[in-house]
Amino acid sequence: MWAAAAKRLLRSKVQFSVANTSLTVQRNRRSSCSSLLYFSRWQHSSPVYDQTCLTEAMIRNVKVLDAQRFVCVHWEDGGQSLYPYVWLRDNCQCPECFLQSAKARKLSIENLDVNTSLRNVNLTDANKVSITWPDDHQSEFDAKWLKQRCFSKESRAEMQEELFLQERQYWKSDLKIPTMSYEDVLNCDQTTFQWLCTLRKVGIVLLEGAPVKRGELITLGKRIGYMRHTFYGYTWQVQDKIDANNVAYTSGKLSLHTDYPALQYPPGVQFLHCLKQAETGGESEVVDGFHVCNRLRKQNPEAFNILTSTQIDFTDTGVDYCDFSLQSKQRIIELDPTGGLLRINFNNATRDSVLNTPVEKVQAFYSALKEFMDLMNQPENTFYFKMKPGQVVTFDNWRILHGRKSYESGADISRHLEGSYLDWDVVMSRLRALKSKLQNSS
């Protein structure tokens, strides 16, 4: 068995969090796959819940708290964990109750006795908890598996971070945009994992060195899994068009927005590949919307409450991949059940004139929205950059608002970006799969 220090080093190579020292990943096509970034991670003070030591989880003894219907596991490091009877029975790992090949439960809730007792509990020589239930069914639980699923507040919070990578690094106009090699992302699992971790935490990553041709985003999308097909197709061409069916397909300025709030479930991640850049104008601008939301919540709680509680209609109608007539209702600032920031839904071009709000509340809504967008547009919050052919900007469409300065348009196409979408479910799936693969290969 490896020493504790060696195990900590191994896990540090494949942690989710991006190192805080620098957001810019050095481009070195020959060496980028030879080593991983060392990712820092917040650790709990209690040794019981330090997940870097899970491979060493050792049980001292097991006790039954029958009055509370808990099994209490005492760990060698001095901590203890409580597990309800019903949860243990529900999560029996035997072949009769659980299909290991699919990592899926076979035991139906209809056959679960939610008031079950237990006959006895033993600690085996293999450091496992063995339980015999009243019907003589037997369950066995590995120490590491149990420790991962401890019900303490600290352990639950750490597991949620492990599963969903919820930590965010906010930024303003001083952003040093993380930059990586497109070629390395396609060919190196370590770099791909690094890219997706950074995308999740910072919200934006620039890839350099992509071939300057249409269709490359399909290749990039397949590196993750599959792309989001919308009414604009798998990919779409951002360029000046006659009779444009989208304001992005003009040469005018685009104000800060998120894409596709007219869909009830907007795409989570967006790719934009620069194929041709205008000589004059066309600079991109991005804002960390979550940073601005936090400022608004502190500066004007009433305005924040209005934007998190008022449902706004968005619409999008036209013909592209096929004809479409979309209608949705969104809160401009969407919160999760705990009150945390989940998603920003805002595109002024597709915000409907229909406003399903009592007339006496209309003025307050507009005032709140105006204050929110004024904060977005403050120079201290906005980062500008001008894409070059061969660059692909990848960003969190739920968090980052993006826009564009106007540019000169002529007889020929003067600026051309190709875009595509993915859902966060797909991106997070690849991230977890790569993490597991890298851990196993190490």
Describe the structure.
With 442 residues, the chain is of the alpha+beta class. It has 2 domains: 44-154, NE0471 N-terminal domain-like, CATH 3.30.2020; 179-433, Clavaminate synthase-like (Double-stranded beta-helix), CATH 3.60.130.10. The protein has 11 helices and 22 strands. The strands form 7 sheets. The protein has a 6-stranded mixed β-sheet with strand order 9-10-20-13-22-11. It has a 4-stranded antiparallel β-sheet with strand order 12-21-14-19. A hairpin with a 4-residue loop joins strand 1 (59-65) and strand 2 (70-75). Helix 6 crosses helix 11 and helix 9 (301-309) packs across helix 10. Mean pLDDT is 89; it is low at 1-32 and 34-54.
Under CATH, the topology of the largest domain can be stated as Double-stranded beta-helix
Q: Please give the count of helices.
A: 11
Low-confidence stretches: 1-32, 34-54
Indicate the CATH architecture of the largest domain. 4-Layer Sandwich
**Regarding CATH, which class of the largest domain?**
Alpha Beta
Helical amount: 25-40%
Q: Write down the domain tally.
A: 2
Shape: elongated
Strand content: 25-35%
Distance between the termini: 14 Å
Rg on CA atoms, Å? 26 Å
How much is the average pLDDT? 89
The gist of it:
The protein is α+β, with helices and mostly antiparallel strands. It is 26% helix and 25% strand.
Distinctive features:
elongated, 26% helix, 442 residues, 4-stranded antiparallel β-sheet
Topology:
Elements: H1 4-12, E1 59-65, E2 70-75, E3 80-84, H2 85-90, E4 98-99, E5 104-105, E6 120-123, E7 128-132, E8 138-142, H3 143-148, H4 153-164, E9 179-181, H5 182-187, H6 189-202, E10 204-208, H7 216-224, E11 235-238, E12 254-257, E13 269-276, E14 284-288, H8 289-299, H9 301-309, E15 311-319, E16 323-331, E17 333-335, E18 341-344, H10 362-376, E19 382-385, E20 392-396, E21 400-404, E22 416-422, H11 424-441
Parallel strand pairs: 9-10
Antiparallel strand pairs: 1-2, 2-3, 4-5, 6-7, 7-8, 10-20, 11-22, 12-21, 13-20, 13-22, 14-19, 14-21, 15-16, 17-18
Helix pairs in contact: 6-11, 8-9, 8-10, 9-10
